[in-house]
Amino acid sequence: MSLGPAGASLNPDEAENFEDMEKQFAVKAVQHMATYWAILEKMKGSQLRLTKMDDEIYEHFKIDFPEFDPTETINEDTMKSKEGKERWRNFMMAYEKKIDDYNFGTMLRANPKYEYGEKETIFAMRMQFYAIEIARNRQGLNDWIYEQAHA
């Protein structure tokens, strides 16, 4: 499907069926969420590498977001505020040519203590997911999922 040349305005009366695109996105996001959960059930998060660049992403995340506490619930309003979006955009652009689908939408647990659920899940970009989940995994915050699956 083509949306026209980059920067062109989109006329909704002439647009193709975006409902199908939204459904396809939702399917891909749910598949990613389910796959990640299944991996965490099979392997402790503290032993997991999400990308070949985990170390670089983690160090960059700690520098750009020194106040972020992986044990706490993410404040979605702060994350998606004008300032928050700008900070995240700057962080993510460093990976534009390094990480596939760096800006693809995905689902992220707001708090590492809970499973994915309607009230515990927020929409995030792939690099936000990587940065936050790498930080959680480094601190062993997702190991309970493996332990619960093997109890």
Task: Supply the key terms.
mainly alpha, 6 helices, disordered N terminus
Task: Give a written overview of the molecule.
The longest helix is centred in the first third of the chain and has 25 residues, at 18-42. The chain has a two-stranded antiparallel sheet with strand order 1-2. The chain is mainly alpha-helical and 151 residues long. The protein has helices at residues 18-42, 54-64, 76-79, 82-93, 126-138, 143-149; strands spanning 105-109, 121-125. Helix 1 (18-42) packs across helix 6. The protein contains 6 helices and 2 strands; from the N terminus they run ααααββαα. The model is unreliable at 1-8 (pLDDT under 50). Helices cover 48% and strands 7% of the residues.
User: What class do helices, strands and sheet pairing give?
Assistant: mainly alpha
Proportion of strand residues: 5-15%
Major beta sheet, strand line-up: 1-2
Radius of gyration: 17 Å
Count of helix runs: 6
Order of helix and strand elements from N to C terminus: HHHHEEHH
Average the pLDDT over all residues and give the rounded result.
88
Q: What distance lies between the first and last C-alpha atoms, to the nearest angstrom?
A: 47 Å
Q: Helical content, roughly?
A: 40-55%
Query: Main sheet?
Result: 2 strands, antiparallel
Task: Label the overall shape.
Answer: globular
Count the E strands: 2
Low-pLDDT segments, ≥5 res: 1-8
